[in-house]
Amino acid sequence: LHNYLGQVLVAKKEYAVAEGEFVRALQLDENYLEAWFNAGKLFFQRIRNAEAIQALSRAQVLAPGDPEIEQMLAKAYFLEGRLPEAETELRRGVAGTSVTGRLWLAAVLHAQGKDDVAGVHETEALAEGKPEEVFGASLAIGGAQVHAGDLKAAEISLMRAISIHPEMPRPYAELAQARKFTPEDAPLVATMETILEKAPEDIKRPLEFALGKVYTDMGDYDRSFEHYRAGNDLARRQVPYNIGRLFDEVERKIAYFTKERFATMPHGSDSDVPILIVGTPRSGTTLTESIISSHSQVAGAGEMTFWGAAMSHVQPGFPASYTPEIAKQLAHEYMLFMRQSSATSAHITDKMPGNFSYLGMIHAVFPNAKIIHTKRHPIDACLSIYFQNFSDEHEYKWDLDSLAAWYEQYQRLMAHWRSVLPPEIFYEIQYEDLVEDQEGESRKLMKFLGLEWEDGVLEFHKQERAIFTASKWQVRQPVYKTSKDRWRRYEKHLEPLMALLKYAP
Predict the structure, then answer these.
(1) What's residue 482's pLDDT?
(2) Within 10 A of 330 (CB to CB), how many other CB atoms are there?
(3) What is 258-288 written as a DSSP string?
(4) pLDDT tens per residue, range 193-220
(5) Residues 144, 104: contact at Cβ < 8 Å?
(6) How many CB atoms lie within 10 A of CB 261?
(7) Residue 29 — pLDDT band, cuts 50, 70, 90?
(8) How many CB atoms lie within 10 A of CB 293?
């Protein structure tokens, strides 16, 4: 029943609660195949691939030879950059014998530089495959290749999907993330506009955001903003927002987490392994993590969802629910999550931006964990958030008024953390400063973290790892400066954000 309830909750997009139900099912029966599979599928859908691998591997032990488990495992390995394991899964049993499986195998082989054998599998699969199967596989593979940073391969996969179904919006939306558009792409853009005009409202949103990005690439900023606004408006009609609830939550945290309170709260661990990088989305957290994790003693775990899920269980009875036992349990479970990224690194980064909301609890559990707050010009940060087709969980961002109100509360809370957290564990970096002087700011970061300087941190863009944030294009490039003062291109549309200029550096 817990397993069934978890599936219902997934359908309702209540993912954190669903995860808890699958865990409860497995606590009752640790060999419950369906719960392991459903948990793995949830982790995979939520782009938590290390956890997906763990759950699906357990399911595979209970159901050896299941092609669905093998294929999902292979995809998770691919997205984690563990290409030999992905190849092994696709060659195991029947996982790689279908048209879809062979196209995935070709993609994995190509990513390893085995182009000749990859071409054989791809040619055979395309010759045998029915159009619908080739379309679905090409679309999924193209999206995965975007995340993995193989943008040229992604473009080939997505254009194949478009050639089969030129009327479908989703491949164009993915293609916009795989390449920069130029005026020579006008015929392709005209096709996207025609598809948008004919599409039902419930599938227009990703194409609106894609066209916003396309017109930005082409320098038509007014038209770009029109599409971004239309995409946000579509979401806002489905996603309400109560800013008063956020205001009350910030008030409670400011009142509770004082210097005096920290002195009495039980600690979970004295470890200094975690490095938490927080800020608003689009504030430079991905760039900062990429620089830090390029150091030989640091591993990057990306955006870990741990604290948001953990707080949903602790907060209902807080502060009575926060006991020494709970503090130790949180520390133990968080370290298990982190060590999935590296078993040996001296430090591991967690760049979930929204962890800024949980810094009080995080500091109580890990008093020696370093916290890095990335700051960006407020209107550039808000505009970049507005331009992303985030999940509905980002309910604050779908109109400029609520986005501005949310940003005000973020600033209030960060001002509080700045005043109560010890300076030896709390560090702030300005995105624009990092862009202007990468080496100078990187050296300051390394000094704060107690790490010896390594020249390799200046070549972060050469890291081979999947990026699952809206920064996936930029982090493949050396530091670029075109994002500074980007908001001025759209200034006449941004009146609700103008009051935030008081927070500008």
Answers:
(1) 58
(2) 24
(3) -HHHHHHSPPS-----EEEEESSTTSSHHHH
(4) 999 999 988 889 999 999 999 999 999 9
(5) no
(6) 14
(7) very high
(8) 26
Handedness of CA 335, 339, 343, 344 (dihedral sign): negative
Tokens of 293: 């994790």
Question: How far apart, in whole angstroms, are the C-alpha atoms of residue 40 and residue 47?
Answer: 11
Structure tokens at 4: 């069934």
Query: 467-486: b or e for each residue (b if 16 or more CB lie within 10 Å)?
Result: bbbbbbbbbeeebeeebeeb
Task: Please count the other Cβ atoms lying within 10 Å of the Cβ belonging to residue 53.
Answer: 22
Quote the CA–CA distance of 132 and 141 in Å, as a whole number.
14
Q: Listing from the earlier edge strand, what are the strands of the sheet with 370-375?
A: 298-300, 347-350, 274-278, 370-375, 426-430
Count how many residues are written for the chain.
505
Distance, C-alpha 348 to centroid of its chain: 17
pLDDT value for 467:
47
Q: What is the pTM of this model?
A: 0.86
Rounded Cα distance between 439 and 457, Å, is: 9
Instruction: Find out whether 399 and 232 touch, Cβ atoms under 8 Å.
Output: yes
The Cβ of residue 418 has, within 10 Å, a number of other Cβ atoms equal to 12
Q: What is the mean pLDDT of residues 263-268?
A: 95
How many C-beta atoms lie closer than 10 Å to residue 347's C-beta?
A: 23
359, 401 contact by CB (below 8 A): no
Tell me if 45 sits within 8 A of 6, measured CB to CB: no
- Given a cut of 80, is residue 470 above it in pLDDT? no
- Cα(363)–Cα(367) distance, rounded to whole angstroms? 5
Query: What would you report as the CA-atom Rg of the chain, rounded to the nearest whole angstrom?
Result: 23
Bridge-based pairing of strands 370-375 and 274-278 is parallel
CB 150 within 8 A of CB 108: no
- 142, 154 contact by CB (below 8 A): yes
- CA distances (Å), 278 to each of 31, 179, 283, 285, 373, in order? 37, 28, 9, 7, 5
Rounded CA separation 174/49 (Å): 20
Measured torsion, CA atoms of residues 56, 60, 63, 66, in degrees rounded to the nearest 10: 90
pLDDT tens for 419-446 read 999 999 999 999 999 999 999 999 999 9
